[in-house]
Amino acid sequence: MSTIFSQIVEGEIPARIVYEDETTVAFLDANPLAPGHTLVIPRDEYERLNDVPDDIAADLYDTVHRMVPAVEESVDADATTVAFNNGEAAGQEVLHVHCHIVPRFEGDGGGPIHAIAGDRPDLDDDDLDDIAADIESRA
Asked: What segments bear the compositional bias annotation Acidic residues (predicted)?
């Protein structure tokens, strides 16, 4: 089943495309959180970051890296929040990998990325050591 983003890539749904190359497309979010809110996607459908092949992931990052200053300068933003929602539990609504570049402005009322998690876990040093070792063993 084709996602709305794949339909944009195929030209079946109109979008304000601001950049495209052989493997990625960037376009304005149809429901922006700020002026200039841009999405960067791989042309091919991958549900989660874990599914994206290494070469496409590198291309995706290259496009994000190119677009951040372009977006900031275009809307005279003071900063940007750059983020992926990776899976439905994280708030991913379209199951096609996409990076949000959200322009930020002094006094915009938005919070830092740490504000998204709700209650923070109570972890001691042993817990942190165990988690770090487990992640390191899988990397």
From this structure: 122-133
